[in-house]
Structures are given as C-alpha cells and as structure tokens.
Amino acid sequence: MQCAKTVNFNPELDDFFMSTSLSLAPRSSQAVCFLLPPRSFCNNELTFCKLMHSAIVCTNKRRQMGGSVARLGVNIDHVATLRQARGGSEPDPVAAAVLVELAGADGIVVHLREDRRHIQDRDLNLLKDVLQTKLDLEMGADEAMVKVALSVKPHLVTLVPERRQELTTEGGLEVAGQRDRIKGIVDMLHDGGIPVSLFIEPDPAQIKAAHKIAADYVELHTGRYANARRLKEEQAELEAITHAAKLAYKLGMGVNAGHGLTYRNVKRLIQIPEIVEYNIGHSIMARAILVGLDRAVREMKQLVG
Ligand code: PXP
Predict the structure, then answer these.
(1) What are phi and psi of 6, to 5 degrees?
(2) Which end of the chain has less Cβ packing within 10 Å, N or C?
(3) Tell me: the pLDDT tens digits for 69-104?
C-alpha cells in the first residue's frame, strides 16, 4: 500500500476496524478475523488508506499470534440442486446455511442463475434474513439481476460470466474487453451501497481492468490450477495466481479465490497471504454426503484458517 505510508494513523480507526472484523465474523474459530474494507464503504480515499493500514496491522498481529488470515465462504448451490431434482422442498438450502455457519464458515455464497436452476428468489430473501455472517450473491452482469440485488442487499455481489448451457461457471468474467458495460453494472450496485467483486482469471490485464472500474474485490478463478494434471502445469498456475493476487492487493482491492478447490489442492493456495477468502462449494458438499455437513465444513475451515 503506497499511500498507507503517508497517512497519520488514528488508533481509533484501528479499534473500529478490529471490532468491525469481529462483529462480521462472530463464529470464526480465530480470535480476530481479517476483512479487507470495501472501497465503496469509505467516503474518501484517505479513509480507505487508513482502513487498509488497520487491516494490514491486524493481519500482522494475527500472524505474530500464529493465526491465519483467511476466511471460508461456503457455496450452497448444490443443496438447492438436490432439492430441485424432485421439485419439492427438501433439502432446504437455508437450513444447510445455518448448519454451515454453526460449523464455523465465515460466509455463505449462492449463485442466483437467470434460469433459476438451483437457488430460488425465496432462498435469497430468507438467507439475507437469517444469516449471522455474510451473504455473497454471485450473479450474471445484467440489469435484471441488479434489480434483484438492490432489493435483497447482500453484503457482497460477485459478478460472474453466465452461459445457459454450462454445468458450472466456466472461466472468468471478461472485464478488459467490456469495461464500459461492466462499469455500468458496478456503478449501479455501488449506488445501492453494495460492494462488488469480479470473478476473473488470474490475468494482469483483467486485474488492471477491474481496478479501473472501481471493483472492491476480485475473486481469482482457480479452475485451471485445480484441473492441472501435471506438477509443472500446477506450478505455473500457482505462480499466475500468486502474481495476480499480489497485483490486485497492490492496487488496493481485496482478493478472494475459488472454483474447483478441494481438501487437497487448497493446501498450496493458502500459502498466498494476499488471498483473504476462499469460496468453496462442490468439494465440501461431496464430502458432506459421506461424513456430514458439520464435519465437512469444520475440516475445510481448519485447512483454510
Ligand atoms: N466462486 C465462484 C465465483 C463460483 O462461480 C463457484 C461455482 O459456483 C465457486 C466459487 C465454487 O466452486 P466449486 O463448487 O468448484 O468449489
């Protein structure tokens, strides 16, 4: 953080940041939970810099205490997929979300798709009411979805590319090639007081474009790393993610990561200190079928932080 060095630090802001972090993550197993301040929450650049500094101070304190800095967001779309398979009401993703939180997750992630193939509007509204941590709404970058987001007011919107035929989100959002259009969507969400994350490939051009349109966070797509079959390929992808995380952090954005992460492959990723949150769905739900949701979440939370 270049500007942090020139700011006169205010201890009250450090305290404010500490207590905000704690209140946003009351169930975290760690003593202090690190959450990068979304740029849109701050009324000017100086405040943002001060909060960033406080975040860095908190992170360093946690490291000295031997703690981790990362948070776990659990994607519960698969619970809704199972419900939709029979068109009934079970299993209820809202009940699952409560169990996920009780097991120590730091947030719940849902993808409201245009075709409503799994998560429904009813789920979203109930989740916003009952969650004790935070709700991250993944959605396509279009105006119809913005309307939904503005009425539900999740704690974070993550914009993702969406194609009707795909099985899951394939590839990151092309921000560099459609900057004006995505900026329009980001601005509408910011006007409604909602911080925005962009799900992008770990590519410097995409990160610089995300910064230019004032994204608060980026979520780095880890699919290529997760799918790598050879060590050399995996190493190259890990380096790309490391480089992308450092660049995004240097530009003042919060850095999340997700897609295809498992109990095995997440271990190398957690070595990247700039990544503050991992969003994981399929692997946790697959394990939950065998060992139970509570244990599956606790085991992943232990790995991540
Ligand atoms: N992050 C984003 C933006 C996603 O679209 C998804 C998949 O819905 C995930 C994380 C979770 O991916 P996975 O289910 O492979 O863990």
Answers:
(1) -95, 0
(2) N
(3) 699 999 999 999 999 999 999 999 999 999 999 999
